[in-house]
Design goal:
Elements lengths: L2 H22 L3 E2 H10 L6 H13 L3 E8 L2 E9 L1 H26 L8
Antiparallel strand pairs: 1-3, 2-3
Helix pairs in contact: 1-4
């Protein structure tokens, strides 16, 4: 088993959650999402982000609007839908439970092995 493969899978499992959180703060442009994810050491390429945003839109969790730009083509700004807010609240509860459970397991120093 390769460590890198496991690390990638762990990151993939949290990516959608992180993106929804970023969008939940207000309308956001995709490159700003990439910048925040990268600064948090969650390395994501555009080829990963845009298909994920499309899936979230098709699931009616996010929507976007085009905004004219003075320095180039119009930009897509994303925001959560009402359904997206409900979905994120449920994911947040699941995340909290998962973190609590994981911390309980990894902080347990008692050995269960009997000699």
């Amino acid at each position: 088993m390769k460590l890198e493969n496991t690390q990638v899978q762990m990151r993939k499992g949290t990516l959608e959650f992180c993106i929804l959180h970023i969008i939940s703060r207000g309308e956001v442009y995709a490159s700003d999402m990439l910048e925040e994810l990268t600064s948090a050491k969650i390395i994501v390429k555009e080829g990963t982000l845009y298909p994920l945003l499309t899936r979230l839109r098709k699931a009616d969790l996010v929507e976007y609007k085009w905004v004219e730009s003075n320095s180039g083509p119009p930009r897509k700004y994303y925001k959560l839908t009402d359904e997206g807010n409900i979905f994120l609240k449920s994911l947040s509860a699941t995340w909290k439970d998962l973190v609590d459970s994981t911390n309980q397991i990894i902080s347990n120093t008692q050995s269960k092995v009997k000699v």
